Sequence to fold (280 residues):
Amino acid sequence: MKLVRSPRAMASLAARWRARGLSVGFVPTMGALHAAHRSLLRRARRENDRLVVSVFVNPAQFGPKEDFARYPRPFRRDAAACRAERTDALYHPAPGAIYPPGYGSFVEVPGLGAPLCGRFRPGHFRGVATVVLKLLESVRPDRLYLGEKDYQQLLVLRRMARDLGLPVRVVGCPTIRASDGLALSSRNAYLSPEERARAPRLYGALRAGAAEAKRRGATPASVRRRMRRALGIPGARVDYLEIVDAESLARPARLKGKLRLLGAVRIGNTRLIDNLGLLV
Ligand code: AMP
Fold:
């Protein structure tokens, strides 16, 4: 496995592969890799001749009061995980290599980036879209692997790729959960044992919403109410528990078609998100 630190070195390595006709799969991450990341790596490994994984804690996607400074950075463990999944290149640029002094260009996907997490994390998706575009520009992969766990992010990046005509196929991968239903996340490490015990109720609330949506006479409003009632985590703050159109993220007038239930809650100092697909 090659450890690559600069955009230029990454670009030339990937260009050599492409010149030999090898396909490249790319998994961007912020590190602190867990079993869900590894499932993305395995899928990308299977479907491509070469696998590139990036580990970059992207300052541009954190708000001023968010957890950028304390975000876990167990780099040696991450490198070992990448090696174990037969990664060809681990791309780990320094912040200054991505955002040199005077940096001033950003990508906006205002429609899909505005609701839900966009309301509670201003600038977040702009930071995500910008860094992923920059990473793609160096790696130029055939396929980009993203988790459905960050569903809004997946839609934002798909739209960016389509709108900008990027020659990459975006592959959405299913959410990986702990046995009690909690979606795996690097941020779960912040939870105290008591908080961890309550955290699966977010998924429980989404499932209760899905059950309500299938009930005769249910409405989008009754689904929202049902999710709020089901959550019941003492001391949790709900950013949102929503039912939206799975493609536009708009609130539906009726329960019909491809919908998505999405939730974001804060338990103590930890913000958790999750979502669930629904066909009615
Ligand atoms: P992150 O390191 O949190 O930026 O995540 C890197 C990639 O892994 C993103 O595409 C995430 O959506 C994906 N990912 C993180 N957690 C999960 C999960 N529990 N299930 C599926 N994909 C995930």
About this structure: The mean pLDDT is 98.
